């Protein structure tokens, strides 16, 4: 009897052991289609080459997944003769470092375009060291000639000083600043003529402390060239009336003297509500712009700048480079040569351009709040641009107005 019981216990133990072995060997094998399950959660099954990496060590799918869909370090294809350009001082180094990082992360790490930095003084070693370490393309540093950053001989400096005093009392932004006026004049008529810029055909202007909110997965310079564009923007608005009281009078004088420079199918309706008699103050915000340098260096644009410069409004008032560029593009370029980059999300204090269109924002990893988008607000001129060009406004714009 005792021997029978011992025999029965041996049988039970043996069966139990067999069950345990069967359980573990079965559960260690992935069922058919398990690689698709892993791929659906962001993992890719290792290929033969993956599993014979250095040391012939197989990849552990649980701790070292091979991620799929990562972008290449650079996007292949031809590059344009283009550069970023920044007007900055040595004290701007950390603000421009932020801007460079934004541009590189969202765009230029894929294309490696050059960067030109311009200053009315010599750049110091810290500025050069910090900025060159952040860029994927070559960096170039140039000093602005004194004759491009000073009062021209025809300006009455006493009269200009009185204007600055009056504007200071009226609390007009930058109204009492000499350097701001030099900057506006330089950006209007000289940056594209700097020796370092003569090497290029296209430019993208970048200022300190700007932000890009979305990935840009195509070459914006090549887009401009391939589609016959000469000037572009992301934000538009009305200029401060107090800063340009006689600008349009000067423009009308130029039109009368140079009718040959005015394009037939221009954007006058963006600039004026009465056929050119008065200026409605709309302009493209020039702290962001991608444009063609050959157009700025052309005789029509040079004639336009020289006419305005002789009238003295950069110093007797406070003419900005934004309305100057905008009026020139609006009058001297056919309207189809001006482009609105809805897909380049951008911030410069205090305005935000956040692309209208939820799917685009999701697809391009945008981190801007669409409620901050300025495009369809009352002080924006972007709706005028759409109307002028017979364009349909993006889906969802009415929820942002």
Structural overview:
- The protein has helices at 2-27, 34-39, 93-106, 125-134, 157-169, 178-189, 220-226, 247-257, 268-271, 293-296, 299-311, 313-316, 321-332, 358-363, 382-388; strands spanning 43-44, 66-67, 82-87, 114-119, 139-143, 202-205, 211-212, 231-233, 236-238, 282-284, 289-292, 338-340, 346-348, 351-353.
- The protein is globular and about 55 Å long.
- It is built from 15 helices and 14 strands.
- Helix 4 (125-134) links the parallel strand 4 (114-119) and strand 5 (139-143).
- The model is unreliable at 1-8 and 15-71 (pLDDT under 50).
- The chain has one domain (82-396): Spore Coat Polysaccharide Biosynthesis Protein SpsA, Chain A, CATH 3.90.550.10.
- The strands form five sheets. It has a five-stranded mixed beta sheet. It has a three-stranded antiparallel beta sheet with strand order 7-13-14.
- The termini are far apart.
- With 401 residues, it is of the alpha/beta class.
